[in-house]
Amino acid sequence: MRKHVAVLVPAIALLFMAGCSSTTEKAPQTQKPAAEKAAEPAKEDASKVFKVRFETSRGPFVMEVHRDWAPIGAARFEELVKAKYYDGARFFRIVPNFVVQFGLAASPAMTKKWDKPIKDDPVSRTNRTGSVAFATMGPNTRTAQLFINLATNQSLDTQGFAPFAQVTEGMDVVQKLYAGYGELPDQDAITNRGNAYLAGKFPKLDYIKTATVVQ
User: Fold this and answer.
1) Contact residues for 135 (Cβ-Cβ < 8 A; gap 6+)
2) Residue 27 — very low, low, confident or very high, per pLDDT cuts 50/70/90?
């Protein structure tokens, strides 16, 4: 599994989708931020928006996915949720005031099955608090790992991280996910051993019970 990494200018961090060991803040990797659109449309075509409800060990939260923000990423995310990819997955990397990262499956076989890179989307929205984007290790390397911004990280915009969703309910739950292990969990080990590795070494990690597309 390739290591996905992103660069954050203000916090000088590299966010790795798969594999990062530094204790400094690291981001999901890409290019330079495009400014967020000045005004959102008053109403959006319902066919372009759907919600995903996450039931977690800490409580529920809901993401609102906007297909027009990042069409390729939104489509891949929908596929992953419907395939139950995220069910059982741990929130393995949390950097306070920066990001929550997840998306290595509970089962190594599932992670391997979806290790299929997709093309990048242009950045059309800023990485503000609660926005969701794919982690990456460079151009056109997005697979399944995601991050939720815990603060407004506009520096990620210029690195090519294209938000495709926003947490609209339960952001307080996201903020309370267990962060005691920081960046200690090894992403290569998670890729190869899944929850068998995490349960033994990092038992306090919060996890996703189910992720479901809702109307």
Assistant:
1) 4, 5, 6, 15, 16, 17, 18, 27, 28, 29, 101, 103, 142, 145, 146, 147
2) low
Q: In the structure encoding, which two tokens stand for residue 149, read together? A: 């911004």
Could you count the other beta carbons within 10 Å of the beta carbon of residue 65? 22
Where are the extended beta strands (E) located within the chain? Answer: 5-8, 13-16, 49-56, 60-66, 93-95, 99-102, 131-134, 146-149, 165-169, 208-214
Task: Tell me the sheet residues that pair with 56.
Answer: 208
Q: Are 17 and 5 in contact (CB under 8 A)?
A: yes
Backbone angles phi, psi at 112, to 5 degrees: -65, -40
Structure tokens that stand for 72 in this block = 């390729």
Question: Comparing 34-38, 47-51, 153-157, 163-167, which segment has the lowest mean pLDDT?
Answer: 34-38
- The overall pTM is greater than 0.85: no
pLDDT of residue 215: 76
